Amino acid sequence: MKVGDLPGHGFKALALPDPDRSIDGVYIGDLLSWVMGRAQMDNAWITIMSNNNVIAVASLADCSCVLLAEGVELPEDLIELANQKFINVLTSEKSAYEIAVLLSGLLS
């Protein structure tokens, strides 16, 4: 599945500089140091965190995208930073659990 397919499944794109990036798994977590050490390349990372460190961690972990749960949004300056760093960021009103269940079905 490609990140660019997610808006068709109820996600709102905040930054989508690399829509053709593949999603090969999912990681859920809000403790940034934990995510840095455990998220895998091409994972969709589900979180409620919305600070500039999220963009840095997503870049370091080489995540395919950041999925913000619970309707979390990014301020405009972080959207610009995500676009500059080629980090896809989308948001959903769904909980982290609901997003994970949805992705499990889509990735199967």
Molecular structure report:
It is a single chain. The chain has 108 residues and is of the alpha/beta class. The chain has one domain: HprK N-terminal domain-like (Udp-n-acetylmuramoylalanyl-d-glutamate--2,6- Diaminopimelate Ligase, Chain: A, domain 1). The protein has four helices and five strands, in the order ββαβαβαβα. A five-stranded mixed sheet has the order 1-5-4-3-2, with helices on both faces. β3, α2 and β4 (65-68) form a beta-alpha-beta unit. α1 (32-38) packs parallel to α2 (52-61). The chain is globular. The mean pLDDT is 97.
Features:
alpha/beta, 35% helix, 5-stranded mixed beta sheet, 108 residues, 4 helices, Udp-n-acetylmuramoylalanyl-d-glutamate--2,6- Diaminopimelate Ligase, Chain: A, domain 1
